[in-house]
Amino acid sequence: MRPALPARPPPGQAVRVRIDGGDFEAYAGEPLIDVINRAQIELAQVCYHPQLGPLQTCDTCAVEVNGTVTRACGTRVEAGLTVRTQTQAARAAQRDAYDRLVAHHDLYCTVCDNNNGNCTVHNTLHTLNFEHQTRPFQPKGYEKDFSNPFYRYDPDQCILCGRCVEACQNVQVNETLTIGWEMEQPRVLWDGGKPIGESSCVSCGHCVTVCPCNALMETSMLGEAGLMTALPLPVFNAAVGVVKGVEAATGLGLITHVSEVEAAARDRYIKKTKTVCTYCGVGCSFEVWTKDRHILKVEPGPGPANGISTCVKGKFGWDYVNAGDRLITPLIREGDRFREASWDEALDLIAWRLNEIKAQHGPDALAMIASSKCTNEEAFLVQKIARQVIGTNNVDNCSRYCQSPATMGLFRTVGHGGDSGTIADLEASDLIIGIGTNTAESHPVIAARIKRAQKLRGTKIVVFDLREHELARRADTFLRPRPGTDFVWLTAFSKYILDHDLADWAFLRERVNGLEAYRESIAAYTMEYAAEETGIAQAALEKLAREVAASPGVSICWAMGVTQQCGGSETSTAIANLLLVTGNFGKPGCGAYPLRGHNNVQGASDMGAMPDRVTGYQKVDDPVAVERYRREWGVTLRPERGLDNTQMVDAALKGQLKALWLTGEEMSLTDSDSNHVEASYERLEFFVVQDLYFTNTARFADVVLPGSPSLEKEGTFTNTERRIQRLYQAMPPLRGTKPDWEIYQAVAQRMGAQWNYAHPSEIMDEIARLTPIFAGVNYERLGGFGSLVWPVDADGTDMPLLYRERFNFPDGKARLYPAVYQPRVQAPNHEFDLHLNSGRMLEHFHEGNMTFRVPGVAAQSPDAFVELSPELAAERRVQSGQYVRVISASGAIRLRAVVTGRVSGNELYIPMNSRSAEDAVNRLTGQNKDTVTNTPAYKDTRVRLEVLPETGPHPLPKTNPRWGHPTPQRGVEVERKWARPDYVFPGGELPMHGASLNRRSDRLSTASDD
User: Fold this and answer.
1) CA distances from 936 to 213, 331, 832, 943 (A)
2) I want to staple 397 with a disulfide (CB 3.0 to 4.6 A). Which of 181, 370, 713, 968 is the partner?
3) Read out DSSP for 866-927?
4) Average pLDDT value over all residues in the chain
């Protein structure tokens, strides 16, 4: 396990280098500083960060290499190097370089919020035993920038190391930050000089995370982290003055010692807890710093899925945990009102009513729905209550609304229903195809890796989508097929590649079954037909098919634009078929990546919260699984398939489903055809909703239970890579709330079950006993930032890359599956003449129940809107900010318009998040579904538009990053610093740059995946 590293040349051959008299193993071409750090030789290094690579801006890592003083970070290893880190010349250069840095930095460590043991500037002062500045600090003359809601920039603290620029340009690849090296007083610039809040900054937090001092800091830290940092400004300035006055007489040693004592005192009240992000399926992990219930900051770094990377939600979107409207007591309905109740009363009522309904109507009159926001252990207990305590297979989770078709397509063809590799494998691809996925907004950290691969390694990006989102704009090829036709071009590609002898015949011959039957099934899918059906030129399709066949490594990412169609399972199958035809499974840099939308939607399905499968996708009628569960639970699993989410809604409306227990899902707004869903909930005899807030869905409940978010409990999540990670309790549950697993256990006990779990680790031990692909998973192996990627053998061996040797079928071979084209059924007609598309926004998550409770997010994206193309807006005489009514056969909503080229023709786009339940997009979607999995065909919806007379402000405030204009460049561009007339290499009289150094541009031009 290691965090994501920058793209670098692959390690060369093993060589030996001599450092300070010792011999050490190294690899030709790697940065010398990595060898020094592995050898645990103390060396100053301010600008260097292992996940950023050499920047060569600070010069503090000066060493003697074969007798010449140079930078350790910029020196590539060669056989026979002799390195000395502590010669007089090297030490002089190190100290001189540091002196130049702190001339840009106002040292006041004792009263600095950032003095928490992780300030590189502070720690380097100690490393160098630096006592006095010879170059006094000079203010730069710029104001602090507080215009971003989440962090501030203080130019007077900025040492111009360029870490933030490198992180923005080449890790996040938002390309907002630069340094104005040619300015009289250089500083970091946003969009070339805009205030942060008016720039293209997406508040991903990379810059704040890598800042080596307090120049970039979370506003949640200011005045909160230190013992003396909340002083009023005049007192604070006076305290800084005292520190400066003492320094001249005593040296910096005494001052830093006092600050270290103060920092150590903070450890008594600042808690640092490893957790896993609770938003999308990327699975970012980090430490969350808390002071009581105040969240000081999120600090990423060692996370195996993300490294230093986060997005605005993961880095800054945690205010929902302390929202003032958190539920803090159970509620019981009395007529049309709710009253507060004790936990005992609420739990007793639930157990009594479930038992009563079971006795009167049988177990299949009850159903359970697990939450994709809860832990694996909690999802497991949901299906355990259903199957062991109640005796029904009526259990499901929200993957039914997004990912079930992708899972089905992979079950049919390769045998496992998950990503075939890791994010690192995806980044190593030569060609990445995105189909129906707005990755940059739905899975920002994965998108960052894709963008980085394109920028630094030349990876080709191809996007098929209706809407021009960020990855579409950056793509080497962007094509807009007609809605619901991706199956056709995918299958035509497979036929074309087979017919033109471009397939990976050895792979097909040795590792794949069903080729002849598959070829027969796709005989009609010519390129001519594909062009006619998709609206894409035949020449463009043929050219791209040849590129796919010729590429050494192809990965395909897809999401709701594929799965939320009537043919979602068929198109997902076609994706896997194309990858099989071209041999793109079982090796790094290729494979199938159905990007999971929620933090634990993969885990909820892994845990058996499905109507026909128990843990690890074992079928409920599999004799081996049935016997395994009988021994563990003492009951025999029922072999019949239960009801899925969408079938539960229909069954409730018909009066067949009497009771439903729903956890952590706003189903009344996220299921298709919200009006239909709400009507079904009103028919239930007994409805339990378990959530953090009184949601729109809770309005229909009989009992509402206050659960706990991830920061208030322990457990595990499984991300889109199949990576299992632990989360630890950062703060106790809010008074009056309980972790969900404790709630399930309490009800199960009241219903007669002998459950006695003392900790979630015991639940995971049971999961491991029942589940072959989790056999080696336990909390000890997942300790800290450890992770395991299923399947996991009993000895703890996991499998990040699937299918190296065999596919998940008895004979080890994959299967080409003859899928069937399912065209859309809701094409626009005379009455409803427009097509509706919907999806996520970067700032918000899903319906917005969490993110609208984050003030900074809500200020940047206050509400939903509808995007219209310029041509449609001109035809209908609509301007941005004007109210329109969007109407379908299912309902109508009222929103403000945004006129944008992101959509084209008669397409409309509406984000899934809305402040008003009445105007949620799923008031419009209908009853048509994927023909295999019953996933609603949200993307197959026709509507019409009514223009209203009212006009409001533009739905996107000027502080929204979509108004900004990024400034792409190669990185920090240190050569521009070296070209300044005032630059001198520390300890020398002449500028040191040019051919003698391994330039940053060399790394960019020769880089490949590490």
Assistant:
1) 49, 31, 19, 17
2) 370
3) EEE-HHHHHHHT--TTEEEEEE-SS-EEEEEEEE-TTS-TTEEEEES--S-GGG-GGGT--S
4) 93
Q: Are 169 and 968 in contact (CB under 8 A)?
A: yes
**Segment 702-731, tens digit of pLDDT:** 999 999 999 999 999 999 999 999 999 999
Write out pLDDT tens, residues 142-170: 999 999 999 999 999 999 999 999 999 99
DSSP for 304-342 reads TTTTT---HHHHH--GGGG-TT---S-EEEETTEEEE--
Q: In what order do the strands lie in the sheet with 294-300?
A: 271-276, 285-291, 294-300
Residues paired with 753 in a beta bridge: none
pTM value surpassing 0.85:
yes
So what's the pLDDT on residue 471?
98
- d(Cα 423, Cα 176) in Å, to the nearest integer? 24
Is the confidence at residue 2, as pLDDT, over 70?
A: no
What is the model's pLDDT at position 988? Answer: 59
Q: Check: CB of residue 421 under 8 Å from CB of residue 800.
A: yes
The arithmetic mean of pLDDT across residues 454-470, rounded, is 97
Find, among 135, 147, 106, 148, the residue nearest to 236 by Cα: 106
At which residue do the structure tokens 């090796």 appear? 587
The label of the residue with tokens 């103390």 reads 42
Range 649-680 burial, b when 16+ CB lie within 10 A, else e = bebbbeeebbbbbbbbbbbbbbbbbbebbbeb
| Strand-strand pairing, 337-340 and 151-153 | unpaired
Q: Are 611 and 394 in contact (CB under 8 A)?
A: yes
Length of the chain: 1010
Between the two ends of the chain, the Cα-to-Cα distance in Å is 14
d(CA 178, CA 157): 17
Instruction: Work out the average pLDDT over 382-406.
Output: 96
Q: Which of 740, 736, 719 is nearest to 662 (CA)?
A: 740
Q: Which residues contact 689 (CB under 8 A, 6 or more apart)?
A: 662, 663, 695, 697, 698, 700, 701, 703, 704, 705
The Cα 29–Cα 23 span in angstroms is: 17
- Give the tokens for residue 349: 């009522």
The residues, any chain, with a CB within 8 Å of residue 57's CB and separated by 6 or more, are 47, 160, 161, 162, 972, 974, 977
Burial (CB < 10 A; 0-12, 13-18, 19+), residue 184, is: exposed
Specify whether the CB–CB gap between 978 and 993 falls below 8 A: yes
Which residue is it, tokens 């799923």? 922
User: Look-up: residue for tokens 């400004």?
Assistant: 233
pLDDT at site 237: 72
Mean pLDDT to the nearest integer, 390-419? 96
Q: Which residues contact 844 (CB under 8 A, 6 or more apart)?
A: 851, 852, 857, 861, 911, 912, 913
- For residue 749, what are the CA distances in angstroms to 76, 198, 377, 741, 746? 64, 55, 17, 12, 5
- Non-local CB neighbours of 819 within 8 Å, separated by 6+ positions: 409, 412, 487, 491, 521, 569, 570, 571, 573, 574, 577
Q: What are phi and psi of 881, to 5 degrees?
A: 95, -15
| DSSP conformational letter for 555 | E
Model confidence at 187, pLDDT cuts 50, 70, 90, reads very high
- What would the mean pLDDT of 670-694 be, rounded to a whole number? 96
Starting at the edge strand found earlier in the chain, the sheet holding 715-718 runs: 715-718, 723-727, 787-789
Cα 446 from Cα 870, distance rounded (Å) = 31
Structure tokens at 781: 């192996």
Residues whose CB falls within 8 Å of the CB of residue 499, separated by 6 or more in sequence, listed in order = none
Residue recorded with tokens 């404790």:
742
Q: Residue 244: its pLDDT value, please? A: 64
Is a pLDDT exceeding 50 seen at residue 997?
no
At 935 the three-state DSSP class reads coil
Q: Parallel, antiparallel, or unpaired for β 834-839 and 907-911?
A: parallel
Reported confidence tier of residue 287, pLDDT bands at 50, 70, 90: very high
